[in-house]
Write a structure and sequence with these properties.
The protein has 423 residues and is of the alpha+beta class. The chain is built from eleven helices and 19 strands. One of its GO terms (molecular function) is DNA binding.
Length: 423
Amino acid sequence: MDKKKNGIPKLRFPGFTGAWEQRKLGEVAKRVTRKNKNLESTLPLTISAQLGLVDQISYFDKRIASLNLSNYILLKKGEFAYNKSYSNGYPFGAVKRLNDYDKGVIPSLYIAFDPDNIQVESNFMETYFETSLWHKEVSTRASEGARNHGLLNISPTDFMDINLMVPKLKEEQILISNFMHNFDALITLHQRKLDHLKEQKKGLLQKMFPKKGEVVPEVRFPGFTNAWEQRKFFDNIEKVIDFRGRTPKKLGMEWSAEGYTALSALNVKDGYIDFTADVHYANQDLYDKWMVGNDLYKGQVLFTTEAPMGNVAQVPDNRKYVLSQRTIAFNVDKTKVTNDFLAVLLRSQNVQHTLKSLASGGTAQGVSQKSLSQLKVIVPINPKEQQKIGDFFKQLDSLIALHQRKLDHLKLLKEGLLQQMFV
């Protein structure tokens, strides 16, 4: 029998036995309804899935004079808030605690509450609100309310009536919350390392390519002194492989359960291929009908034309791939440019800015081959300088991809732990 059905988590610290107990949120926390009557705070807050309850004055500053903050709920450090309306686009079930400020104000569309630390440890509750169990329970309650009120939201009464499963002993609650807090700190550390590497790369891309109107970069490898030259982008390209709009259905076929991986704008990331994102496969017949002899090769540059526009990666190996939605590939003129340098060139600041100016469309901007024909680039004449630049950024991209994989692994591990350590 599944231990979880008996109120016992699958993964537990040694020395703790027995089932967890079911409590209603309203039994272990009291709703906060105090108004900001005396204007104790002029700090409007909102829920961010990444940052919790955060300062949004930059958003409010043009309207803050007209806001009647005395009617807002006054929230104090350590208290929680939940946006009760699903229609406002917040992650359903997202509850966040005010950790960074002593006081703040939130609109009445939030449900605010303060935990009773004597019964349930506040840090444990913060972790509990990240579990799929909690999100499922809130979603179920809101769906039930929708049948009665016609709007997918949840009333404060129903919200405070939601069931929680908590350990009877505070000691177990504290161990769990401390463990998950340390795990979150590890994730944050890896995220900072990754962000730092990306910032370093951004800075190097600015310094190792000439600024607008110049022909010599600020930072250069030793032994190279010649000025770079301006060319039309397509002067460096022999062929563009572009299957814009092609789908299996249009070819009278379907994706397969396995086979050749499709590369699209959803898995061609900035500097690497994400083989876990929206993966589709083509069998041999679909591959032959789709690629019609245009086999991709290791190192070949891939470019996403839309949604998102401007991501650049290289084919990672000599396996066969299908070039899918909103992604094109370049066959370079090897006498003029190397693949590795082209991959970096397309991500340089000047080129990215120019691409945005050439892009068309509203929310989902994109570039066509016609737009790319207007692109001009600055390129080192010496192919050895090109290769050194390409090699340098390829190694940096590999390091960034390694840190990204580690971070993704930690997040998946946390998700698994939340599933197994809670009931």
